[in-house]
Design a protein that fits this description.
The chain is mainly β. The chain is built from 1 helix and 7 strands; from the N terminus they run βββββββα.
Length: 88
């Protein structure tokens, strides 16, 4: 991801993916309010997206996508339609 103009590579595991954003477990320091660039691997292919960190509690983070193009939004929609909902 890109944080404040500097490229920082942080690994993470995403969950709760929607057209608006995602929740992720991130291995590295990150703060609420930061603009970031995310590289996502979806069943429909790779996406590079801009986002804002909505919350960061330890490694648990929420990202809101910003400036999505229509084709990116459609790719996320198609990917999430294929996912099975979690059952608790």
């Amino acid at each position: 991801m890109v944080i404040n103009g500097a490229t920082v590579l942080l690994s993470g595991l995403g969950s709760d993916v929607s057209e608006n954003g995602l929740r992720a477990f991130v291995l590295g320091p990150i703060a609420s309010g930061q603009p970031v660039e995310l590289n996502l691997m979806l069943p429909t292919g790779k996406l590079k997206l801009k986002a804002k960190v909505q919350f960061a509690m330890g490694h648990d983070c929420g990202f809101e996508f910003t400036g999505l193009r229509e084709d990116q939004q459609m790719q996320i929609r198609k990917a999430t339609e294929r996912l099975e909902p979690l059952r608790t």
